[in-house]
Write a structure and sequence with these properties.
The complex is a heterotetramer of chains A (about 650), B (about 300), C (about 200) and D (about 120).
Chain A: H1 2-6, E1 9-10, H2 17-26, H3 31-37, H4 41-70, H5 80-115, H6 123-142, H7 170-198, H8 211-243, H9 256-273, H10 276-290, H11 297-311, H12 326-338, H13 340-356, H14 363-386, H15 388-394, H16 398-428, H17 434-460, H18 477-507, E2 537-539, E3 559-564, E4 571-575, E5 582-587, H19 594-611, H20 614-632, H21 636-643
Antiparallel strand pairs in A: 1-3, 2-3, 4-5
Helix pairs in contact in A: 4-5, 4-6, 4-18, 5-6, 5-7, 5-16, 6-7, 6-19, 7-8, 7-19, 8-9, 8-10, 8-11, 9-11, 10-13, 10-14, 10-16, 11-13, 13-14, 14-16, 14-17, 16-17, 17-18, 19-20
Chain B: H1 20-49, H2 65-94, E1 102-109, E2 112-117, E3 126-129, E4 131-135, E5 140-146, E6 151-153, E7 162-164, E8 170-174, E9 180-185, E10 198-204, H3 206-217, H4 226-234, E11 262-263, E12 268-269, H5 272-280, H6 282-285, H7 298-309
Parallel strand pairs in B: 1-5, 4-10
Antiparallel strand pairs in B: 1-2, 2-3, 5-8, 6-7, 9-10, 11-12
Helix pairs in contact in B: 1-2, 4-7
Chain C: H1 18-46, H2 61-85, H3 89-116, H4 125-156, H5 166-191
The chains are: A mainly alpha (about 650), B alpha+beta (about 300), C mainly alpha (about 200), D mainly alpha (about 120).
């Protein structure tokens, strides 16, 4: 019975009744109901992108205030306490609320499209992770207007963040907000891992998966193992602050260094979590504009995986100055040097791809090519900080600030903006403005280097991080002035980009299906894609399905117009993990309010914990668990469909 | 030149055997990484703009693997060399070549540095603040503690950083080849006044150092007068003056206040006007500092200031 | 290429429901949480000068009984899942119910064990570690029992069947994980002090 | 199947993870032991607190390097056996070879660190 129904294979012509039926099956309800209940990965992906970009702008404004304060010596635009809250909020916003969520946005939107699936493995969990993300973001920002925002830097060292030296709610907000945000990150990671293992189009065996998915896959595995460390650290700190435990309480044999270990065991893998998917965006987009496949698919994939693995064993390089024995430090110095080998692999792969290709200088390509040099500068300054004796000088100076901005802006923001340009036709159905795009790139590129390169020099001249002002006789006046000017120029570039996005959404030319002549599956769907992504699940016969005619050696032929029909309710195809052989028809859940309801209750629980409201906490836990049961409640409709 | 008057610079100056090998390492590494950036940049520009033959052959995916093989192999060898060099330097600076001549206990506090010189004879022990005097040409052991939060001890021209962590006793050695003043600064965020937590290392010839130490070990000269009683009633809860009953331990020991060049952990030079300002409104000059504003009657304040002038 | 190239596919291959993969990823992340908890424990223990545990090695009787109960409950869950796969729903529900009963006994005994301690979470470092780590585990036991209760209810209501045992399998997997973690916690707090 | 020379899944997994595991063991154990031996409580120790510490750590380094070498050899044998048969297994074998090479370098450098740096210094 079920098998007979399952075997239907065929093709669906655009505009046919079958296509309309698919639309009905997959479309979200119109209006606000659909908006709150949708589980469409494309809507969720775009929401992630918008929300994360909003946080980028918030963090950017904080940065500009910081730069104004530091433009000249002895300024007092903000008070020292305001300054502390500004740099803390700037750091945590950019690192936690922008850098990963924006990449989750890309992956959410693109994964099912590049993998040839109709949705993520757990669409409701996907909605849940977005709602938790935005609630956690609101939670972390809630105390900022009251002047009680987190104020101990994003790495929040104890004992300064402990109950004795930091009595306000500031750090409790940070601690609980991070645990809450961790839920979102973990939910997202679970979804990506299972989607990768389970939802690839038939024929898309491991060596054929689009290169960008390796980055997000590695990052998701990284999250699964790293996020618990930071959630635990913040939870223990919260216990210390609220229930008199002694984990970090020096007077009772707690250890200040335990925090540093737990934080950086998370923190360093996290650095790779927020750059590997962005490098994947480049590896995916760059070859399109070079008109040839990426050179060295396997080495690049390997370098992604190896970087993530090595990333778990370098955390102590943030702790070189803690007085640990030299021998202990030397292990981590060596490991931190080694981690640049996979980066070298990726760099040479990109350059070789350009060298052997025929570059087409469209806006996304400018960002990807510009990224390469920023990647190298950020990488080699990392090699300098990996050298233990040298890091004992560089540590906690502006050299490190320069390094981390080259890494995070160079390797995250540039690929992200390039990626938005690259997939803009898919996102919006419109083409961006080449003129505005080029302008945005050049202003951003020049502003970025003008703003952040001098920070290296400020660092070599001994300027420490996190000082709210400095006297005029330290030799830092000029570099700081230049940095401030550059950062405003960079901000202007971002503004031009935002203008371009809004202009093009309304006024851009209609985008064709595959405007860049790209090789991967998302470019077979209309721009923007329909709610069901693929009318039939395509069969993938090679690594570059859309370029099979023009490569000297394509391993096989893909079939894109004909495949599994799968239209008995929301269905997509499950395939085996290694060889992607068809394995099962997966019944996908309907849209639901439960993810939103569950995330409201869970977020309310954290508010209750912050306020020490016991009854509210118990109520929210009970309601949250109930909504989870409701969410997972088996659907008899499935069996009826199967039996039909 | 701009770099010449940057007192915390460590890229152009290294003035002791704990920092000199690192300066060399710094330049070697910096040269290599700048070279790498230039090479990659040139390759990138060439790749972007080189002349290309008209399109005749279909691209093959595996063309260009030699780029990765050659590039990565070269990088691996460069990294091997750099790592071994780095490790050798680490071993070199991990400890001085001979036993330390002197041990100084430095306790980091929000937001100043307490500096203690031990001695077998209790009468010779003394405590000072924000100014570490050392003899030249000798390795000096700094024993680091913190009474509150994590701070970092850093005298860039003499040595790298070491955190002062409450509950732990870290060590750092410094050595100055020539007499001079070397600036230091806390570099771990430690609260609102992290920016104003500077100190100085004053390196002197052994003779000068001995003379200084001798003078510091003496109790304060006993000046009588109104100023002293103002001090005892207003200041002695936090500050100590050896030879008097003032034994407060929260703030710097003021026994030889006038021998110091700076006050308030490097915030201001030690002049009569600055002291007066500091006593009246520390919360405006260094908001959050542990010292409250003292609104003293004009007469009391003048007396107190003239008393402080006697603390030489 | 001919259509016969594409194999036919059954609706839902039950052994490999996405939820089953999802449960493994959840276990991976939860396991690392416990690894970090135990890391913190050993890190602090190795550096303390206090007597450890402060009141001498703990009494073993209750906790050994508890260990026995929890490990046995895993067996019941295992057989319950098997019965369901053999289409014997009632037996499955009964076996899982026994496992839940054992779990409840574990929770009660653990609470008794807690109440016998003369220290609290804020008394000293050991107390903080002891109550936090066993508390985390207890929370997972309660969560696991909740999962088992829900899936056994679904089985009784006819939602989970021989061909659709996915939720039961996932809950069972979680329960085995919770039991496995206990072995490490039991070893840390009750066996290691005697070594 | 005729491909008798083709390595099995277990072998491929070992090739992929073996050298990495050798390095992770060396790195983690080396770090934990040296931190404990030289900074056991609240202040640095002059001598390692563990007996025969330098010798033990050096031996561990050499054993792990040899193990990584062995995994490299195994991975390259697997790769040679399968390199002409396209597909997922060939890909895994290639990943295994690259992974082993990378972690051989890592293990060797970590051993170099053990040999070059003295266990504890009276200063630290």
């Amino acid at each position: 019975m079920a098998e007979a129904q399952a075997a239907q294979i065929g093709s669906i012509v655009p505009g046919s009744p079958e296509e309309k039926r698919l639309h009905e099956i997959w479309e979200a309800e119109p209006g606000w109901r659909g908006w709150l209940s949708t589980t469409d990965h494309k809507s969720i992906g775009l929401r992630y992108l918008f929300t994360a970009f909003f946080f980028l702008i918030a963090g950017g404004i904080e940065a500009l205030i910081i730069r104004l304060q530091l433009a000249r010596p002895n300024l007092s635009l903000v008070t020292p306490e305001q300054y502390a809250q500004l740099f803390t909020m700037h750091g945590l916003t950019m690192i936690f609320l922008y850098a990963l969520p924006i990449l989750s946005g890309f992956s959410n939107y693109l994964w099912p499209l590049v993998l040839g699936s109709r949705d993520m493995a757990f669409p409701r969990l996907n909605a849940f992770s977005y709602w938790i993300f935005i609630f956690a973001g609101a939670f972390l920002y809630a105390s900022f207007p009251l002047g009680q925002a987190p104020n101990d830097g994003w790495f929040n060292y104890v004992p300064f963040s402990g109950p004795v030296y930091n009595v306000g709610p500031n750090i409790d907000v940070y601690a609980l907000g991070m645990v809450l945000l961790g839920l979102s990150t973990t939910a997202g990671a679970v979804n990506f891992v299972v989607t990768f293992l389970r939802l690839r189009a038939p024929g898309m065996s491991i060596p054929r998966v689009p290169i960008m998915t390796w980055g997000t896959l590695a990052a998701s595995f990284g999250n699964l193992f790293a996020v618990p460390a930071v959630s635990l650290a913040f939870f223990l700190l919260w216990l210390d602050r609220n229930f008199g435990t002694h984990f970090f309480d020096i007077a009772h044999d707690g250890k200040a260094l335990l925090w540093q270990h737990l934080f950086w065991i998370f923190g360093h893998p996290w650095v790779y979590v927020i750059v590997l998917p962005a490098m994947g965006i480049v590896s995916m987009g760059l070859p399109t504009f070079c008109r040839r496949p990426l050179v060295g698919y396997m080495p690049v994939a390997l370098s992604t995986v190896a970087t993530m693995l090595l990333g778990f064993e370098v955390w102590v390089h943030h702790m070189f100055a803690t007085g640990l024995p030299s021998l202990s430090l030397s292990f981590f110095g060596a490991a931190s040097m080694i981690i640049s080998i996979p980066s070298a692999v990726a760099t040479f792969a990109w350059i070789a791809t350009i060298w052997l290709g025929r570059p087409v200088f469209k806006v996304p390509f400018l960002f990807f090519a510009g990224f390469i040099i920023l990647f190298v500068i950020g990488g080699v300054s990392g090699v300098m900080t990996a050298a233990v004796p040298l890091d004992l000088q560089l540590n906690d100076t502006y050299f490190v600030v320069a390094h981390l901005h080259y890494v995070l802006l160079g390797i995250n923001v540039f690929p992200v903006v390039g990626g938005i340009y690259y997939w803009f036709p898919k996102f919006s159905g419109r083409m961006n403005s080449e003129k505005l795009g080029r302008l945005a790139f050049w202003i951003m590129f020049i502003g970025f280097n003008l703003g952040f390169f001098p920070m290296h020099i400020a660092g070599l001249l001994g300027m420490p991080r996190r000082i709210y002002t400095y006297p005029p006789n330290m030799g830092w006046d000029t570099v700081n002035m230049v940095t401030t000017a550059g950062s405003f120029l960079f901000a202007l570039g971002v503004l031009v980009f935002v203008i371009d996005v809004f202009y093009s959404i309304y006024k851009g030319a209609k985008a064709p299906i595959n405007p860049w002549d790209a090789p991967s599956l998302e470019w077979t769907t209309p721009s923007p894609p329909p709610p069901y992504n693929f009318a039939v699940i395509p069969f993938v016969g090679s690594r570059y399905p859309l370029w099979e005619g023009r490569l000297a050696e394509a391993e096989g032929r893909s079939r894109l117009d004909e495949g599994y029909l799968l239209m008995n309710g929301r269905e997509t195809l499950g395939t085996t993990a290694m060889h992607a052989e068809p394995d099962a028809i997966l019944k996908m859940p309907a849209d639901s309010y439960f993810p939103l309801v569950a995330s409201i209750f869970i977020s309310a629980l954290f508010v209750a914990l912050l306020l020490h409201a016991l009854i509210m906490a118990i109520t929210t836990v009970a309601l949250g668990l109930l909504s989870l049961v409701g969410w997972l409640w088996p659907r008899p409709v499935l069996r009826m469909e199967a039996a039909a | 030149m701009l770099a010449m008057n940057a007192p915390l610079d460590y890229f152009l100056h290294a003035d002791g055997s704990a920092s000199k090998p690192v300066l060399t390492l710094d330049w070697v590494f910096a040269s290599i990484v700048v070279a790498v950036c230039i090479i990659v940049g040139v390759l990138l520009v060439m790749a972007l703009f080189r002349q290309r033959a008209p399109e005749t052959v279909l691209p093959r995916e595996d063309d260009g693997l030699s780029w990765i093989v050659v590039g990565t192999t070269l990088s691996v060898f460069a990294l091997l060399g750099m790592t071994v060099y780095m490790l050798a330097t680490l071993e070199q600076i991990s400890k001085p070549s001979r036993a330390p001549a002197l041990t100084i206990n430095v306790t980091a506090r929000q937001w100043w540095w307490q500096v203690e010189y031990g001695a077998d004879d209790p009468a010779k022990r003394f405590s000072t603040a924000n100014e570490i005097h050392i003899p030249t040409g000798e390795p000096i052991l700094i024993v680091l503690n913190s009474t509150d939060v994590i701070h970092t001890f850093w005298v860039p021209r003499l040595a790298g950083k070491t955190q002062a962590i409450p509950g732990l006793t870290n060590r750092q050695w410094i050595e100055a080849d020539q007499p001079g003043i070397y600036w230091g600064q806390c570099t771990e965020y430690c609260g609102v006044q992290h920016a104003h937590m500077a100190f100085k290392v004053v390196a002197e010839t052994p003779q000068d150092f001995d003379a200084w130490r001798e003078a510091q070990a003496k109790p304060a000269a006993l000046a009588e007068g109104g100023g002293r009683s103002v001090f005892m009633s207003q200041c002695s809860g936090c500050h100590a003056i050896r030879g008097t009953t003032a034994a407060g331990a929260y703030g710097p020991d003021l026994t030889h206040l006038q021998s110091r060049q700076l006050i308030a952990a490097g915030l201001m030079t030690n002049t009569q006007d600055h002291l007066s300002d500091w006593i009246s409104r520390p919360q405006e000059l260094k908001s959050g500092a542990r010292m409250p504003n003292f609104d003293l009657p004009a007469g009391d304040k003048a007396a107190l200031l003239s008393y402080l002038q006697t603390l030489r | 290429m001919s259509e016969s190239m594409l194999p036919t596919v059954p609706v839902r291959n039950e052994a490999r429901l996405s939820g089953w993969f999802g449960m493994w990823t959840l276990i991976a992340t939860e396991a690392s949480l416990f690894v970090y908890l135990l890391f913190s424990y050993y890190y602090l223990k190795l550096q303390t000068d206090q007597p450890w545990p402060p009141e001498g090695p703990p009494r073993l009787l209750l906790s050994s009984v508890n260990t026995f109960l929890l490990l046995t409950s895993s067996l019941f869950v295992y057989f319950g899942e098997r019965k369901l796969k053999q289409d014997r729903k009632k037996a499955a529900v009964a076996l899982i119910a026994i496992a839940i009963a054992f779990g409840t006994a574990f929770v009660l005994i653990q609470l008794k064990e807690w109440s016998r301690k003369s220290f609290s979470i804020s008394t000293h470092l050991y107390g903080s570690l002891y109550f936090t780590i066993t508390g985390f585990h207890l929370l997972h036991v309660v969560l696991g029992m909740g999962m088992l209760a829900v899936v056994s209810a679904w089985t009784a209501m006819g939602y989970c069947t021989k061909s659709e045992h996915g939720p039961v399998s996932a809950a069972a997997l979680y329960w085995h994980f919770v039991d496995a973690v206990w072995i490490f916690i039991f070893g840390t707090f009750f066996i290691v002090p005697y070594l | 199947m005729e491909q008798t020379a083709s390595p099995g899944t277990f072998r491929l997994t070992v090739d992929l993870c073996g050298a990495a595991a050798a390095w992770i063991i060396l790195h983690t154990a080396g770090f934990a032991l040296s931190s404990y031996a030289c900074y056991p409580h609240n202040s640095p120790a002059r001598e390692p607190m563990l007996p025969h510490f330098g010798l033990a750590l050096g031996s561990l380094g050499i054993i792990c390097t040899l193990a990584a070498l062995l995994f490299c050899w195994s991975a390259s044998a697997s790769w040679r056996g399968i390199r002409n048969t396209p597909g997922a297994r060939r890909f895994m074998a290639g990943m295994g070879l690259l992974m082993s090479l990378l972690f051989l370098v890592a293990t060797a450098l970590t051993t170099a660190a053990i040999l070059l740096i003295s266990p504890c210094s009276p200063w630290k």
